[in-house]
């Protein structure tokens, strides 16, 4: 059965995993994550230099631990995979150099993986993964996109955010409310017993130059400003902010927007399957509403497993196995890293004449 050792170091989570294809199913044999969140929290966000250093320290231990747990060595692997784009260049470099070195030492193919392709592949780690065609809502700290995955696996972007990603909005609003980084889990915790209807907030539509709105696009900057104005006006009245209600109202409006536009996108295309992946897909309210409203509107909703929504290496392994299975072969050992690369260009990572 094809097996890969996969590494993820694109941002502030160092991760390693052994992932295997077993009778058509993608199985996680072992996976570990060393989160740096607490260290970055002191600075209110990710400090790239610190992230790279921590990856250098953590990665050898994580690789040793997953191989031990799997009872295997690099020699047993069919390939070594690492995220090479998009992300923080110094951070990506750690996983890429480690992966290429292990691959070269053991005479194994190296596979450079696109981070967003890995998020998309995370749904294959669910107990009953969907078959294309479907629409994916990719909702993370850097991206909020609706992507059509065709029967042949081809990708087409149908919607996107014109400013902040949803996760970025969670992080910035959390900071405004004095909550910890990362903002998503902090807002979710504060919102649990809050009143989601207390503060009316805007749903951020993106106007078309010819009139009307882009139906599947997002904008979170107006919502952020509305939260700022609300907090300023509440502060003028009292020192104590109604944190729970503010967090719940914010979380609810983000959930409403994501659910409405994603389901509309599916239904307009007569597709009956929606997939949701990425860090924000870990949000409990979002998961509940997406499933409930999908059921009501005849759309079958497939969520990435909770453990594989935020950055991890199991999804990197799943993406690499997907490429292996589809006959894409290996990346060049000279493939470097890139801060940006389009998702549609994921195949560019597998030539012997690398683009970066
Ligand atoms: O996918 P991810 O780990 O990294 C990127 O590729 O961006 O996503 C991180 C983002 C952060 O903005 C974080 O605040 C958000 O996902 N996030 C959440 C939750 N858990 C993580 N947002 C809302 N609710 C959550 N439970
Ligand atoms: Zn990510």
Structure description:
The chain has 356 residues and is an alpha/beta fold. The protein has 2 domains: 3-121 and 309-349, 2-Layer Sandwich (Nucleotidyltransferase, domain 5); 131-303, 2-Layer Sandwich (Nucleotidyltransferase, domain 5), CATH 3.30.420. The chain contains 10 helices and 10 strands. The chain has helices spanning 37-41, 48-70, 89-106, 115-121, 166-176, 183-191, 221-237, 243-268, 284-296, 314-325; strands at residues 3-8, 13-22, 25-35, 79-85, 110-114, 134-139, 144-149, 155-160, 273-277, 300-303. The chain has a 5-stranded mixed beta sheet with strand order 3-2-1-4-5, with helices on both faces. A 5-stranded mixed beta sheet has the order 8-7-6-9-10, sandwiched between helices. The longest helix is centred in the last third of the chain and has 26 residues, at 243-268. The protein is globular. The model has no long low-confidence stretch (mean pLDDT 97). The structure holds 5'-O-[(R)-(carboxyoxy)(hydroxy)phosphoryl]adenosine and zinc ion. 5'-O-[(R)-(carboxyoxy)(hydroxy)phosphoryl]adenosine is lined by residues 11, 140-142, 167-168, 170-171, 182-185, 188, 278-280, 282-283, 310-311. 5'-O-[(R)-(carboxyoxy)(hydroxy)phosphoryl]adenosine binds at residues 11, 140-142, 167-168, 170-171, 182-185, 188, 278-280, 282-283, 310-311.
